[in-house]
Amino acid sequence: MTTPGSTTTPSTAGPAGPATLTDRARAGFASARPPRLATLLSLAVLGFVAVAALAPGLLAPGDPTAIRLDQALQSPSATHLLGTDQSGRDLYTRVVHGARESLTIGLGATALAMALAVTLGVASGLGGRVTDRVIGGALEVAFAFPVMLLALLLVAVRGPSSATLVIAVGIGSAPGYARMVRGQVLAVRREPYVEAAAALGHPRHRVVLQHVLPNAVRPLLAIATLGVGQSIVWASGLAFLGMGVAPPSPEWGALLEAGRMYVTTAWWLEVVPGLAIVAVAVALTTLGRTLQQRLEGAPS
Amino acid sequence: MTLALTDAAPGTRTLPERRGTPMLRVENLRVGFGRGAERTEVVRGVSFELSPGRCLAVVGESGSGKSVTARTLVGLTGRGSHVRADRLELDGADLLGLGERAWRRVRGRRIGMVLQDALVSLDPFRTVGAEIAEPLRLHRWGSRSERAARVLEVLEEVGVPEPGLRARQRSDELSGGLRQRALIASALALDPRLVIADEPTTALDVTVQAQVLDLLAASKRRGTAVLLISHDLSVVARLADEVCVMRDGEVLEHGLTEEVLRRPAHPYTRSLLDAVPSAATRGARLAPSTPGARLRATPAPAPGPTVEERPVLTATDLVKRFRGPDGVERTVVDGVSFELAAGETLGIVGESGSGKTTTARLALALLEPDGGEVLLDGAPWSAASPAERRPRRRRVGVVYQDPLSSFDPRWDVARVLADAAATDLEPPRGPAAVRARSVELLEQVGLGAEHLARHPLRLSGGQRQRVAIARALAPRPDVVVCDEPVSALDVSVQAQVLDLLTDLQRSLGVAYLFISHDLGVIHHLSDRVLVMKDGHVVEEGATEEVLTAPRHEYTRRLLSALPALPGAPGPRREAHDPR
Amino acid sequence: MSAPTTLPTERPDQASPGGGTGEAPRGPEPSGTPRRTSPRAVLTRLVSRVLGAALVLLGAATVVFAVQTLLPGDRATLLLNLQTGEAIERTPEELAPINARFGFDDPVLVQYGSYVGGLLRGDLGTSFQQHEPVTQVIGGQILPTVQLALGALVLAWVLSLITVLATAGRRRWIAGLGSGLEAVAASLPHYWLGVILLVVLAVQAGWFPVMGGTDLAATVLPVLTLAIPLAGFLGQATRDELDRVLEQPFVLSARTRGMGDAAVRVRHALRHAVVPAVTLSGWALGSLLSGAVIAESVFSRPGLGQVLVTAVDSRDLPVVGGVVIFVALVYVVANLLVDLAYTVIDPRRRP
């Protein structure tokens, strides 16, 4: 652990003269860190949700849309773990079966945002000065544009559906990512390893594809993880404004919206889907931040 | 002052009787990090004493535990640390059991500390005056106006001109020398009796380094005890009365500076001394046994410089301007010309901001000059189009100061070398051929096939630089541009890398354009030298001539500022038989 | 919706505190004389900032105009139907006076010119539905929303600074608790948080009024609803930076002078650590206005959000456009203020 220089990152060295030769004792115990409890918990939550999304029947064999009016609005009990809604549908079953649609919205929106962002960011970072100016200006305008309004307009034009949600949230979050990709491209382009590749005589397109792109996009993996959670949160917010998925669906945002009317009489209808959203978002945030630190610090 | 090797462990010496009681006493200091089985001891049983008006230097390479020792003396070893000692006393008072509050009364008032590189060791958002006044304020010294007066007084003491003006500036507005003086001023503000200087000159140019050392010497003369932490033996020679040599947390040798540097008792100290490149080491090996034996088995064609008169790289009247963030254009390289012949080493020496790195990048044609031209083998190089240059790039390799940042962070050694090796091999470049060539390259630089699978992060600094050299050599270049290739390395590792570069030149006949701020390194390695200052070449010629009989005033100043080791014992080179 | 998670990792530029010791060639050594920039340089910079802001506004206006003109459906028909509450085809005779009055038949460029010209005079057009100038429709609702957004921003800063200063860089479980709190806060959906706060603190506990007004008591819960998630984001950004800054040599320097831990945090580290959160704040103010749509709806609070939802529902395009331009204006002004804040925090950025 204390091999001289084994974990030295010379970036802290003075830029001109000889680099620092201070002892790196502290670096030793920063490296071998066991996975934190929070990371393990996050993985457990995501594992559960992944199963719910892929094979909801395994976790909740019942029918999420089965109406049993005689069992309406029952509070959580042994038969109905998380209670029932106004039509007597089992809430646990509905939350489990809603995972797929909610996750799909989150993943879809993030994927769309990333695709847009990488295209714009890379074009801006690698194109000429004019391209960069134009894209930069467009991004500024996009930032100044209230994204909630974009979603409202889209719904006005396309009507509410989960595809609309994906597009609205995706386009809405793209500028932030794009600005980051651009910054990354500009930073990576100045890295000595890019110059070293050019000095070996590799053509420009090869240097870009082999070094600039992958290294610029790499930190985005962690950010995207965080982004999926945020997209789910935002999508649920839109559901409330009547822009979400149609009511019989057990999508979490729709559940939230439906539970609102019963919040004083049947609190679980509002609290449970909300907790599901928060749990997934927190797990993704924690994981994303862990990933971020790993990517910054250690080799893959 | 006699050696007492009979009844003591090798390397220990008896020290002269001291006058008065020591102010700092450290006995059997042990510092560990981590808990339980994971604990690693980084300081293992260090003992020393320090009296007022004296300077003790703790010398060692990275990982020796010297900085941890220094921080322990101000109670800032850090979280997760575990400090034990038989005795840790300042002026007879125990430091070991101090609580955080009591430590705060000691720090700044009784012990002043100077860290390296004031650019990052002074708060960049605050004025120098505020930083110097901080210890005064913290220890409730005087009134506000008295403190302001004291700030000016200390600044004057450390030789800062116009202290009133400087106190209102921030560290980034000051030159390197003024900045470091301001940092020292903040440590001296309360006139502490002990000053700990942790690598106080490491990031500084030689001329500035000399000024800072003079300053600490003056402080010592006024009766302050100075504990100097350094990796640089020549810096130590200039200031310290006693030297402690540390390695792996242990003191290997402790004695009077003169004694230790002239007649080192421990083999490690001797190897450290031998490793320092200088005028005296020209043509000699620096490291006792370089792991490059495989290469040296093939007899070198002819020892000594085999310089042909065929110029490989010719630069004429290079000019390069950059526009600063403030929109003002500055000429960074101005009228630089040189000729690099096949198989020779041309050193470019200069302080920071002299334009030497920009010159290197111009030579590599990674920058377009604003004036002048670079020729490669007599054909246009800087003036050629990128497409024309690309196939010829393999003729010119490059080695950077920081090897780690010159490798794609996603790649392991195998990939780094395969990428470079592919430029040399004729297609089809099968994986076996690429691998064979990579291993061959690794062996050339004294590494083995077992390093292929490693990630550069998992290599030591020296190994990384070897890989970087291997990559530069992959296309079998005629010229390698080396930009401060050994500046970030410990002196013993630097010695090995310099030896390696010498060996490679002899066996491969490659020419080096060697950029360095270190006159010793340049003197050791170069056949000819270019001295640069502010973008101009102030002097050039054969290394021996320029560096022993400098004609230009600036070169003279550089040389006189260079801290020198006390006259090395004559026969020390003969200690190792040439293999 | 522009995921704020992307921003904390971003720094305004490379001049961030302490960290700027990378490979970039150090500029020429400072001459040692104080940098006195000419008033002209200051002016140039100021003009370029304001010009940039104006361009962003023009861009937003252009988008608004494009949406209004290019959206499917005839505007004159839309307008007539909105006025009468019908949804029928209109005859050309009915439409002609409308088209003449609003210039819907003019060439697009002429329309664009008169639209931008109107904006310059402070004219945002006339509401299709309420027949009033858009400025009046919006104007009355601006104050409550701005109060809400600013209140949330201030509260978010206070909350995040308290958590970060108390927990960052401390023992692992304390720091973990702090960053865990932030992760949860940042993951709370506005809408859900609002409803829970409403039910628990207003309906059950009865501490706050259930039906919204704009007085102080009725403002507390909406402000909390917007502030808590934002505090999570600001906290994450500040914590990362504080952790980094506490490792900087100048912090160690301050400790060797005898400075205590709390003082080091507040006097040295914090000033550096808030820079990313300041960057975020410019973005946050814009996004708070989006969040306000939800908060106002949950708490039945008057404001721009209500105006916007109604306008979109009825396709009252001039009002929608007016809100967009107002939000863009807020964003632009907020970012000019952020720029100003940078120079206060970091003297090196002063021109």
TrEMBL record, chain B:
MF annotations from Gene Ontology:
ATP binding; ATP hydrolysis activity
One Pfam family from the record = ABC_tran
Region (Disordered) residue ranges read 1-20, 280-308
- InterPro entries annotated for this entry? AAA+_ATPase, ABC_transp_ATP-bind, ABC_transporter-like_ATP-bd, ABC_transporter-like_CS, Oligopep_ABC_C, P-loop_NTPase
Q: Which GO terms describe its biological process?
A: peptide transport; transmembrane transport
Q: Which SMART domains match?
A: AAA (SM00382)
Q: Which family does it belong to?
A: Belongs to the ABC transporter superfamily.
Its protein name is ABC transporter ATP-binding protein
* Species this chain originates from: Actinotalea soli
